[in-house]
Design a protein that fits this description.
Helix content: 40-55%
Shape: globular
Strand content: 5-15%
Number of strands: 12
Radius of gyration: 21 Å
Distance between the termini: 54 Å
Structural class: alpha+beta
Strand order of the largest sheet: 1-2-8-5-3
Amino acid sequence: MPDTLDPLPAWPMPRSCPYAPPDAYAELRERPPLRVRIRGGEAWLVTRHADVRRVLNDHRFSADDQQPGFPIRIQLPPEPGVMSFSRMDDPEHGRLRRMAMTEFTARRTRALRPEVELLVEQLLDELAAGPRPVDLVASFAVRLPSLVIARMLGVPEEDEADFTEQSRVILSQDAGPEETYAAFVEMSQFLDRLVAQRTATPRDDLISRLATRYVASGELTHEDLVAMARFILVAGHETTAHQISLSVLSLLRDPDQLAELRAEPGLFKPAVEELLRYWSISQDNQVRAAVDDVELSGARIRKGDGVIVAIPAANHDESVYPGAARLDIRRDASGHLAFGFGAHLCPGASLARMELEVCLSALFTRFPTLRLAVPPQEVRFRENTIVYGLEELPVTW
């Protein structure tokens, strides 16, 4: 515990280089967890890979955002269930998660792959026919996962741009409470109408199947399904979109590794895992509240204390990934925590992996001379947001 006379370090912590986690994480991994100052109070910051795994897999650290001391990162209404099962503990977490997971199994992901491949080809056709240079974020990286999750949910394609912008505002740390709340309300009202429509007239989509199977039986309320759809919509495209653009940037900056990928297409699967580890884009939304006193690597965490797990710090832990600051597509990056760990492991992990593998392989095959259209230092990053990413990625070929 630091001396109470010393000011607590502020969190989130700044990056000195946009291609690396905050410098402070390296030193913090050498010591017990410490308290940091966050918006609205204080919390413990956990940075070691082993400690992060323990927190995410220990029921004494609650994911319920109604618990005292829970660190609030997204400025949403305080009522229970706003973030669906992602901000709940068992048994309610497990009950709702099992319903959603029927749509995210490995089998269903494999069945979706041909449709994703077709969507990718259509987007690449549009890129090929359009002007150059082009912003790959807006024209490809955001659009692909937006289209995929919209089709899964049954959201009309013409509403894609609206929910993409609403998600951006909800996850931004620059937006004020009023702007965040307005985006949240607008998305919620849209999904409320859509759930009502699909409940009355089901189609072949995720919302319809959940309505037919669970709302009709009384196992799921209309409001619960709206919240679940909202969580899947925001989480299901925002993270994948920015992982795509950052992955493309990494490979364009490292032509030797890109050449290896092109020569050995079988490397795309391990490369995706390494890119997930390297960027760890869910940079500051993995939070918990202690519901019991816990001793964690020399820190005495009390019941009611907030806890932040720094995923980028854990995935750059040199004791687990030597030379972690270097992207290495041949590295065994298994065990990375980019999708979380334990009971709250990201339900869309297999879908995200498949989308990344398909789009990276297709993009670099279709455009063998793809390159940055600006110097690397001019690429603009999204920094003050829950999900790390790029503002734009100008490319040409």
